[in-house]
């Protein structure tokens, strides 16, 4: 096959696609599309990964932020990219498994339009409270909330955190109002000021405020904690293991039609990068747990969470913000 391709190059002057060989050896910059603004966890993990991949491939890896519609705009953009391995998308849990149930048209199908490469990180959302609520732990908060049904409010910035908040309500029987924010920043400002009592966020966003005593970490919505919030209990530690069944994840995917050999090589290189001790340490410092996987394992997780989210979205009445 290689001899035939070489002959074509010599005789016809045609270029050989990067995937003609069994390995993915990029000969031009590779793009990672992050469908959220700069500065958040999705952006941070992708920039850390891009630095390592640039070293591995000896080719520049660029992070391109295309934010909007809770991840739909950038994800839909990436779905239409050439399936040659040169465009990778940050596959976000909310965009891939929640948005399809709350938007009439996301612009993409998470199953049909993409091939998963690997899970990147897996970490819990965290529920934080303003100290003025005078609660020190989750059970105290639940007891308080049940004396004031429908009067307390929690905020979130996207589909994934809101779904987590709705799951919390379903499991604990607490009745709270949801306040939607376009970003974690404005929501955290409001919970710090006491305009809302609680907020569901990525640990990266709230850890400094919890450590400073300005917010109270009530529970991690996942089976594992994070080093930046060592004193905030996991769902099981707080006595509600069912709250830990759907931790947040970030992963990476390529457009459908990307050759299997390219996907295989991308998986190998991204897993190598994510397992690098220096990369893991940087992610850990942000409250992100490196959690690489096989392509199939990540595909199975996407399908599983997509199915699990459907009923919860329906019961909660969640709509696009």
From TrEMBL:
Residues 1-20 form the signal peptide. Keywords: Signal. Transmembrane segments: none annotated. Gene3D superfamilies: Bordetella uptake gene, domain 1, Periplasmic binding protein-like II. SUPFAM superfamilies: Periplasmic binding protein-like II. Pfam families: TctC. PANTHER family: BLR1237 PROTEIN, TRICARBOXYLATE-BINDING PROTEIN. Belongs to the UPF0065 (bug) family. This is Tripartite tricarboxylate transporter substrate binding protein. It comes from Zwartia hollandica.
